[in-house]
Amino acid sequence: MHQEVKILELTWDKNKKYNFFLLFSICLVSIYLYSGCAASSNSSRYNKNEPKEKNTKSNIRFTSDDPDIAPADNTPVDIDRLITKIKTPTNRSSGNVKSKEVMLMEIIRYMNTPYKFGGNSKKGIDCSAFTQTMFRNAISVRLNRTARDQYKEGKDIDEKKELKFGDLVFFDTRRTVKPGHVGIYLGDNLFAHASSSKGVTISSITSSYYSGRYMGGRRISKF
After folding, report:
1. Which of 90, 92, 125, 127 is the most buried (most CB within 10 A)?
2. CA–CA gap between residue 140 and residue 133 (Å, rounded)
3. Is the pTM of this model over 0.85?
């Protein structure tokens, strides 16, 4: 009888150890699965083939939930005609022709520069950095860095028909930031800008994409 009781106690100890081991294993598996899901859901904002990037001043991430992705606009532009028009006598009395020429030459120099969100050089540039750079290099006027802040500068121009060369033109192209895009008006319904799809280019303000998103213009006193 004593021996049977001892055997039962040993069996209970073994079962107790086995149950503890089983419970411990279940806990480990649960922790692993939970941490795995958390990492997966947290990384879903990023492309699988793209590493996470830190949001620093030198490395601004262009998030997919607030894009400024304009379609490619193949507006035919005659640069020589624009230059000639600026030099015509009818335009000499309506502003500083030399400043306009310098501005247009600077725009031409940056043509086809690739688009880069947060960029501000010929290696890559975004829309507000483009307008800022053009005004600084051409006529020594310092604009604010963002389209939203540039929208507060100069004189307000409500009507498209009132736009003149050098006016800043603004568009509603993003969900959370308004305005989301800015360019420089050149005349003949054309404006120069850093397009997210084509880089620095010239587009028509009357195109279906930009016409419906036009927010207004601002006239900088230099012009």
Report:
1. 127
2. 9
3. no
Per-residue pLDDT tens for 105-132?
Answer: 999 999 999 999 999 999 999 999 999 9
Q: How many Å separate Cα 118 from the centre of its chain? A: 7
Q: How many C-alpha atoms does 98 have within 13 Å on its Cβ side?
A: 1
* Radius of gyration for the chain, computed over Cα atoms and rounded to the nearest angstrom: 31
Q: How far apart are CA 197 and CA 200, in angstroms?
A: 9
CA 196 vs. chain centroid, Å, equals 7
- How do 124-125 and 120-121 pair as beta strands? antiparallel
pLDDT per residue as tens digits for the range 191-220? 999 998 889 999 999 988 899 999 999 999
Classify strands 120-121 and 190-195 as parallel, antiparallel or unpaired: unpaired
Q: In sequence order, what are the residues at sequence separation of 6 or more whose Cβ sits closer than 8 angstroms to the Cβ of residue 178?
A: 148, 172, 215
Give residue 145's identity as a one-letter amino acid code: R
Residues with a known catalytic role? 127, 181, 193
CA 138 to each of CA 102, 105, 183, 203: distance values in angstroms, whole numbers, following the listed order: 6, 8, 15, 21
- Cα 44 → chain centroid: 20
Enter the DSSP assignment of 175.
Answer: S
CA distances from 65 to 146, 175, 213 (A): 19, 9, 19
